[in-house]
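Incident review: delayed structure delivery

Summary: a single-chain prediction request sat in the queue longer than the usual turnaround. Root cause was a stuck worker, restarted by the on-call engineer. No data loss occurred. The affected request and its eventual output are reproduced below so the record is complete for anyone auditing the incident later.

Affected input:
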Amino acid sequence: MERGWPWMKIAVFIVLLVGLSWFTLTSPGPWLAQRPAPNADEVRAGRETLERLQLVHGASGAPIPLTLAGEHLDGVAAMANQVIAPTRVAAGVESGTISLEASHPLPMGRWLNVVATAGGESNGFPAVRLTVGLWKLPLGLSRFIIDAGWRVLRYRGVMLPPLDDMVRRTKVDGTEVSALISLPDNSGLVEQIASVRETSVDAAAVARLYCAMAAAQRRQPEPDFTAQVRRLFALPEPALSPAEHNRAAFVALAMFAVDEQAGDLAGTARKDTQSCRIEPPRLMIEGRPDLPKHWSLSAALSAGLGTQVATAMGEWKELADSLPHGSGFSFVDLAADRGGFHAAQAGVDPERAVRFAAAMATAEPKQIIPPSLLRGVEGLTKKQFEAGYRSIDSPEFGLAAAKIDKVLGSGLIDHNQKMTVAAIAMADMKVWAQRSYRV
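Output delivered after worker restart:
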């Protein structure tokens, strides 16, 4: 009995240590308040940031100067909050300090709250100080944790250079941060984000389907989008389950109709299709070349990253269009987006996959976008949109989206119930929360 006593003390010490860590590293509530969906100006700032990062990412590793104001970081955070809920994030630059904050829910009602701050000038990756719960970590330990995160990404296949090579120089001045950034053209980051989903997209299947579509287009050019959908879903893929086949088909269609970069949703698909690549043809739905792109990209995003991301990106695009120099907020474009991700939902559902593929192999235009949705309101300015719908998380907009879903036959909301405008919107938001994917 006495010989076992030291081990008992060690076990008690470990339990106490774990308990102390749990209640000091986590908090009883989030530090960040729940943020509303982004507005048009926040989307503009966020999209500008992502476009600048895209230039850096596409520079083949050459160092590129990048300057961002506080509104740019805040815009990215506003957009991120819509797709990673219930996790909450915030970012900004103030008084010469850049800060990144996150609140993530944990079991037992606890929250993990993390703050990262940096300031001044640095050669190489900046000196970042982390605060986790009640603990303000020293710079050395903060860097050790960041390095550990970098090693995890490398282990998972993200080809990022060493931190000090990736961020060559930084300067935080007032409400602006500037840096010299170097990123490889194909780091694998998009593929890693896509792989977070339980079901990934088969890259080999995407490549085979895309190359078959490209070959058919060379033999017999076809401008009608519905005809291309029929071609695609008539192609056999015996090595995969029907749901997996459909998932790959949606990504192949987006590569074919929109851009080769859609192949990043399926790992090596973009590289695997170089030998058969063709320029995306000008495809039409009812004489409009924009709607095929909306439908196919939304379907691919839903298949590769989840409906929550596809929904948000479609709404962001329309909010950006409502600003000056844009084409205006379009409920027709929104209907095409929602039609795409509803199609993906049905296509990747194992219980509906076979029937869906058979229907698409003989599809008519009305099965892609019902004619009544082509008569939706278009060209709304930011002022007009906000006057009629306020925001993309308002009851008014929720009702408009629910009406589109009803026409599309989504079945997400029981429209036979007598529901108020607010109740319909709340039901719509609840469904998205329940069916969301972490990305």
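Verification: Confidence is low (pLDDT under 50) at residues 410-439.
Action items: add queue-age alerting; document worker restart procedure.
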